[in-house]
Amino acid sequence: MTDVSVKLTKKEQIEQRRTLILELRSQGMSQEKIAGVLKPDVLKISQKTVSRDIEYLDKHRLEYVKRNRQHMAEEYQATYNNLKTLRRDIFEHYRAFKAKDDIDGMIALVPIIEDIELSIHNIVASGYHIEAELIKYGQEQNKELEERMEQALAKTKRNIVV
Asked: Is 113 within 8 Å of 73 (Cβ atoms)?
């Protein structure tokens, strides 16, 4: 068997590095811990690079959401529907245990029901949060465009007067 090496462009290397940093960060790792995992002596990724990448990821979060909103909407919808199906199914089991007066079975399902309900609540809340962030982003973009338009108009008026 032969090893095949694929040369990545600088842009692809940066994207892969940032994806890895995002993955580690989403696992609750601190910036320092991430830098320790991606040791400069092994992967040649310094603490400073990790810091810059985290700053970049934070700054471009909304652009990421915008680029991936169709996929995110599909995942959101699928997850929400799956949770509702699980809730329906778990309550069917709960009612079956209740019909048999199986208190132990009913009690065993309570933590699962609570987890499903919390998950539904969280996904609905995250949907509102994402929507609010997109609205805020849109408002900021509109403000920037208005400012640029006013500058262009002012420049045009100066040129006409002269």
From this structure: no
Of 89, 69, 40, 51, nearest in space to 134 by CA: 69
DSSP states of 64-105 as a string? HHHHTHHHHHHHHHHHHHHHHHHHHHHHHHHHHHHHTT-HHH
**Model confidence pLDDT, tens digit, residues 139-150:** 888 888 899 899
Exposed (0-12), middle (13-18) or buried (19+): which is 156, by Cβ within 10 Å? exposed
Reduce the DSSP state of residue 108 to 3 states and report it. Answer: helix
Shortest CA distance to 86 belongs to which of 128, 119, 134? Answer: 119
State pTM to two decimals.
Answer: 0.50
CA distance 76 to 137: 20
The low-confidence residues of the chain, meaning pLDDT below 70, are: 1-5, 40-42, 161-162
Backbone φ, ψ for residue 41 (5° rounding): -80, -15
Q: Please give the structure tokens belonging to residue 87.
A: 């809730």
